[in-house]
Each structure stands twice: as C-alpha cells, then as structure tokens.
Amino acid sequence: MTKPLNIAVAGLGNVGAKVVTLIQQQAEILEQRSGRAINIAAVSARNPSLDRGFDLTGLRWVSDPLALAAEPEIDVVVELIGGSEGPARHLVERALSAGKHVVTANKALLAHHGTALAEMADRHGCVLAFEAAVAGALPIIKSLREGLAGNRVREVHGILNGTCNYILTEMRETGRSFAEVLSEAQKLGYAEADPSFDVDGVDSAHKLAILTAVTFGCAVNFAAVHVEGIRHISPLDIAYASELGLRIKLLGIARRTDRGIEQRVHPCLVPQQAPIAAAEGVFNAVVADGDFADKVLLVGRGAGGGPTASAVAADLVDIARGRRTPPFGIPASALEPLRPAAIADRVGAYYLRLMVVDRPGVIADVSAALRDHAVSLESVLQRARSPDQPVPVVLTTHETREADLMGAVSRIAALAAVVETPRVIRIEQF
Amino acid sequence: MTKPLNIAVAGLGNVGAKVVTLIQQQAEILEQRSGRAINIAAVSARNPSLDRGFDLTGLRWVSDPLALAAEPEIDVVVELIGGSEGPARHLVERALSAGKHVVTANKALLAHHGTALAEMADRHGCVLAFEAAVAGALPIIKSLREGLAGNRVREVHGILNGTCNYILTEMRETGRSFAEVLSEAQKLGYAEADPSFDVDGVDSAHKLAILTAVTFGCAVNFAAVHVEGIRHISPLDIAYASELGLRIKLLGIARRTDRGIEQRVHPCLVPQQAPIAAAEGVFNAVVADGDFADKVLLVGRGAGGGPTASAVAADLVDIARGRRTPPFGIPASALEPLRPAAIADRVGAYYLRLMVVDRPGVIADVSAALRDHAVSLESVLQRARSPDQPVPVVLTTHETREADLMGAVSRIAALAAVVETPRVIRIEQF
Prior knowledge:
Largest interface: A-B, 59 and 60 residues
Number of helices of chain A: 14
Number of strands of chain A: 16
Structural class of chain A: alpha/beta
Helix content of chain A: 25-40%
Oligomer: homodimer
Order of helices and strands of chain A: EHHEHEHEHEHEHHHHEHEEEEHEHEEEHE
Mean pLDDT of chain A: 95
Largest sheet of chain A: 11 strands, mixed
Low-confidence stretches of chain A: none
Shape of chain A: elongated
C-alpha cells in the first residue's frame, strides 16, 4: 500500500470544518478512489477553543499556520484562511517554496497573485489546485482544463455569486426592492453584514479572472475585469424584463474577440429560455462554449461548507492519485499576457429605461439622439401615462457598439424631459 | 521535450473523422495542455476510398484494425468501430493485452463487458477511458470519478439519448404523434433507419449501466437495468402532463436504496421547473446528487461528431499528461457485484390514464381497486364527456409501492368500462 497523503488544514471556519468532516467521514471511499489514505496531519486556526460543531479530538493543533509549511511530513497544505494578502498569501508562498502541494478555496488570492503563484508551483514541481475557488461544488476548473482540453473555448459565462442570484430571484418573485431583499438575505445568512464584496460584483470578478486564465491560457488579470454590481437594479426593471421575455442575472463573461479578451461582470438581460436563466436562488451556473463540444452547462451549489468541501476533496484525490495539471492548464511560463478588449467596444443589444415627463416630442428627441449615434431600436414600451409624474419609457436596441450607445445616452440624459439618470442594462443572447 | 503520444484511430465514421480533424486542427493547444504532442500514427477503417470530408493525406492506413494492437510504436488505440462484439471487442481486448491504452466511445461494449475489460486494463497497467461513451461532450465520467470523488453519490439520473429527447420535445411542441415525429427525425438524420436501439431505451440503458458502475463502484450490470422506451407515449399523455405542470422525459435513473441499487430507463413525468426539464431537443443532461456537493447538473450535446470527438480528446490529453484513474474510479478488483433492487419495489408517485366508457359507477370501481391495494390518490382529471365514445380519466397517486399500484391496475384493466390498456407513467420529484 502506498503511504498516506498527509495534509494540513489551515482555517477552520464553515468550509474548513466541513473539509475535516468530509475527510473523516468518507475515509474509506477516499482511500479507494485515491489508492492511498488521506490523513489530516495537522490543523490550524486562530481560536482552538471555539465550538465548530465537530470533534477535534485526535487532530494535532498548530497555532501558527505558517509553521505548517515547515513541517517535513506534511505533503499538502489546504489553505482556507481567505484574503488576498496576509497569512493566506504567506502560507501559500511558503508551502510552495517548501515543495508542498497547495489546495485553496481562495479566489481573492488567485485573482491577485494567481500567475505568480502558478510560476512558483511549477518551479517547485508542486500542485496548486483551486477547484473550490470558483462555483463551489461544480467541477468547472476540471471541466475547462481537462474535460474540454480538446477545444478552443470561445466564451465562458456564468452566475458566479449565489448571494446576488438569490437577491435577484427574490426580487423577481416577490416584487420587493433590492434593499428589502438584501436585508432579509442578511438575516438568513445568505449575505454578509458588509455585502459589498458580493453585491458590487467583486467576488464574481475574482472568480471570472480565474476562469478567464484557465479558459484562454493567459495570465490572470483581475485589474482588467469591468465590474458593475446589482445595487441599482430596481423592481421596475425586473418587471419590464419579464414583460420582454428576459431575466436579469449578474453574469461574469469572458469572451475572445478580435479586439482582445472581454472580461466583464455586470447585470445582464438574458432570454428566459436560456438554460442559464433556469439557475435560480443560491445556485451557480457556468456555460463554456467550445469549438468542438459546443455549449456545456454546469449548475449546482456555488457556496456553503459541503459543496466547497466537495471541491477541496476532489483536488486532494487528484494529488493523492498523482494526477497533475498545471494550475491554469498549461505551464505558467506559457501563459500569455491578457490583451483586454475595452468595454466601450462591446457590440451587443441594450435595454434602456428612461423616466420622462410625458410631453409631446420627447420620444422624437430620444429617437433622434439614438439615430445620430447609429443606434437602431428593436422595441419601445411606453404604457403608463401621467400628466403630473414622470413615466418610464423602455427601449431595446439592435446590436450596437457600446461607445455609440453611451454617446446617445449622454445626450438623452441631458434632455429637459428626462428626469433621472437613464438605466442601461446589456442584453446577452446566448 | 517528452516524446509524442502515438495513437491509432480505428473506425472513421462521423466520430472518427472528427477525432482526426480535432487532433490535426488543435495540435498546438493539445501539445500545450498535454505537455507533449499527440500524433496519429495510423488509422483504420473498412473502406479507404470513401470520401470522409477530410484529407487523409499523410495518415498511415492499416486495413486490419486488429493489426494496430500489435504495433509496438502505438501507445493508444482509439476504438470507434462500435458494437459489443466482433472487431471492436477483439481490438480492445488485444490492445489492452498488448499493454496499450484504449480510448473508446463504445457504450454497448462497456455495458456488456465493462468489468472484464477494466480488470484486463488494471492487470496490464493500461488506461481504459470512455468519456465519449456517455453523454457526448459532457465531462460526466470525469465529474463522477474525479470531480465528486469526495462524495457518496446517492443518485444519478439523466437524459441520455438525444433522439428520444428530440422526439418528446417535438411531440410536445407540435402536438404530433410519435410515429410522425419519428419519421421526421429520420429524415433529418436525428434518428436511425432502425430506431429501436434509441426509442426502445437500449442505448440509454447501456449508458446508465456505465454511469451506475462509476457512481457506486460496482460491477457493470446491464442485465439488471429495467428498460422501457417511448413508443407508447401519446400526444394525449403529453397534453395531460403539461396540464399537471409536468413534462415527459426518457430518463435513466440509478439510485442507491435499502433494497439494493435501482437501475431503470423509462419515460418519467418530472416537474416543469426541475432543472433537468430545461434540457430540450437533442440535448443530454445528467444530475448527480452527492452527500456533500448536493445536486450537480451537466447539460450539453450528447451526440454528434464534434461533441464526441471533444470527449475522446479529453481522454487522450489525460493519458498524454499521465493522469491515471481506474476505469470505474476504483480498482476493478474492488468493484462489488451490483445488488439490484426490483422495480416492483419502487416507491413513488404514478400517473395513470384510463380510457373509460362514461357510465355511472366507473370512478367508484376504479377508486375501490386503488383503495384495496392501498394506493391513495393525489388528483383525478375527467373533463371530456361523451355518451358514445370512451373518455380519458387521468389519475395521479401519492407515493406507493409499484407492486401495489400494478395490482390495482390489473383489476382496473379488467373492468368492463375500461376499454384500453391503462397507461402508467412514473412520476419523479427531483
């Protein structure tokens, strides 16, 4: 029998606790599938006396996580501390430098330092695995790096943040405002006390930057991600979307174009029948579009202890079996710099909602602005009429360049009859 | 640089041709992702002069596929001949015995001889890979064996045959009969001239038997699959399903129960909102339900040259990279015999459609038969009334044991007022 794989788990929050539970509870199947036992040689967390809902008896406690990188008998460090700097980064760097494999769920760390860490892993002949960093239980990293290895993937897009998807789903189903639903999500534990990381799109952008590198074999470039969140999405826009047969989702999209690689996170209008629209509530979903495979969709739980622990365990079994893949699918030295495509050059359809004072000539002025910027209209919805109050006018465009659309919107915003900042939402036809 | 991986492709039909095209066209990315070149050392097919729509120049032609197993410089045999016996089986057996890795898309071969071939592969230290045998482009074998390796999967179910899914989707969308839609599908090339393999559920059953072995770590047991096809599905049942908020899908289901493992392929009624119901037309979809991951859904193209070639290429890259996994996830020697659960012991809900002569007392007689077999009703639909012609009565039951339901159905079928064989369709709540 091959000797056990000795792992150390750093960070015993919700995910860390579930990882320990999984490894203990599934010891037998893990050994069968790995060809060797997986043994927890040490754990580390800030507070050893905290009740974590599972039995720590028999686990060796190391108070300084960085010390784990120096222990010769440890083969793999599982980093579940989180954060792009500080102890998480130091631990991963030291572990790789010491020739240890690293498994991490830390998307912020990879989004900011992924390329450098991949180079470090390659240099020391170590695995740097991060299935758990993107879309929880979905084996999306494995599917892109290995399952679709025969494809040039043209595009990957997905619902990468369960909190935002839950909020948008609830808003649609109940008609309530963003603020109301967010506050409820916080009570239910679906959203953090400080929700900005989720609702402003940062978490999705971290994950997208990782997906982009894996998909296109390029260096991780988080700074190049165009990011917008969901705070400004109103029940009115959700209702209009339904009327148009569309649904609002916060998507991360990475697309290869002639102008470079688009990386963007923002609310999108997608057709209700698009398979990705069926992923509701806390679920995540990712679509990869390969030149031979065509579109492959994965849907499942993107967060939570169990699903994330499942992904960590998959990485551990790969390491235990000796299955090796460079972090981003190809050697780090071969990762090309990402050439970003400017968002202003995006070509696609747009949804535009104006609040206008209902007086003669408004639509003519709006239409003229669009025409002058070469934007052609697909539909106009103006139903509610009120002599006293501003009424919504909803326009959808045919394919147009974003810079042209934005030029027209600036002119429209300046019209006297237009009383609020126009709302623009990109439409994606999948 | 590591030396190239030399492969031989046996069988140059639609899939074989696409595999050759893919390997030629994607040579550069395959080499980056594999760490070595993948080289087509030989091809073999019955008719060398047939126009296959691609350039065979430069490919070495071997007329006898079995000869490929004897060539020392060939590392991998890609078997795309098909069929559970004959040349395909001989080639795979000889190749493995000669210490060559085998990649195959042959579900019939694996369904009938999977365990023996896995033992042979293990004994000779070879890879036997078959991502392409189940659900085309979906990396479902990889996801089950590797991505969900930390889970005890409780159940796997899926739409495994695109032809049947296309027919059922068309029937629902157009209201036409099975025969009409089948004939159209044949004209479009979506169904074979002899469609029985698809529409009678055999193809789905082959794939399910493979999925079951991978999911539960048991020997492949095709004989234990309960198989029903879709020939008897009528537009009437499809219309009633819609009225009940359900959709008819031909599913393969493998489920671990206290009574053993259920393996069954048959038409199912599933809720319209079930994620799997969103897979329409020629698409395949598979759901795996893990104890840590929860439900993971994969959707994509299950057949066709490109998607199948994509799966073959993934297996080749795994081999080229040295990533090794036993064929069914654990060593063949550890695969336990599958203990089949009898279909008569299935516990679930049922849809029952009777054609009855509309006379007083019929419903009372039907209800009494159900009551006497301990079957309780969820709903009764009887709308059309006609003094002259039989009218449909549609019943749905609460959870009941299949043997009890069938006992009641036998008694109901014998009633004078019931003029056709009652139609029974199982309801699955996912």
